[in-house]
Design a protein that fits this description.
The relative contact order is 0.21. The chain is built from three helices and five strands; from the N terminus they run H-E-E-E-H-H-E-E. Helix content is 26%, strand content 21%. The protein is an alpha+beta fold and 117 residues long. Strands 1-2-3-5-4 form a five-stranded antiparallel β-sheet, with helices on one face. Helix 2 packs across helix 3. The chain starts with 9 loop residues before the first helix and ends in a 9-residue tail after the last strand. A hairpin with a 7-residue loop joins strand 2 and strand 3. The protein has a single domain, classed as HIT family, subunit A (2-Layer Sandwich). The structure holds guanosine-5'-monophosphate and zinc ion. Guanosine-5'-monophosphate binds next to strand 2. This is Histidine triad nucleotide-binding protein.
């Protein structure tokens, strides 16, 4: 069923607590934890607790939870005192998506270039 935990999903296991992560924030619907391979001084992933494969699927099926994820990106930035930061949702292998559970990358603490690579 849409949104149900998936046995083979790394981020569902982080939500369940069976794989450890450095959790920085948690709400009823979301978890935020530090990326294991940080690309900036702040690199936090904000995920819905429910399993959806990407941001578009989440927004279509559970728009309130999509809004919760976005609100949490600001809360993460506030906790790390970031005035400027970047939020990235990779969708599909060509864009670099490697984990098929919706996640917002919150990146900050250094200068950012545009366009991204
Ligand atoms: P994607 O490439 O799908 O947009 O992002 C997946 C992110 O998950 C990558 O930045 C990667 O470093 C991170 N990641 C992969 N495995 C783990 C893990 O076990 N723990 C944590 N904290 N992050 C992970
Ligand atoms: Zn999942």
């Amino acid at each position: 069923m849409a949104g149900e935990p998936q046995d083979d999903c790394l981020f569902c296991k982080i939500v369940a607590g069976t794989i450890p992560a450095t959790i920085v924030r948690e709400t009823d619907t979301t978890v935020a934890f530090r990326d294991i391979n940080p690309q900036a001084p702040t690199h936090v992933l904000v995920i819905p607790k429910a399993h959806y494969p990407d941001a578009a699927a989440l927004a279509a099926a559970a728009p309130q939870i999509a809004a919760d994820v976005l609100r949490e990106t600001q809360a993460v930035a506030d906790e790390d005192k970031l005035e400027s930061y970047r939020v990235v949702f990779n969708k599909g292998p060509g864009a670099g998506q490697t984990v098929w559970h919706t996640h917002a990358h919150v990146l900050g603490g250094r200068g950012m270039e545009w366009p991204p690579g």
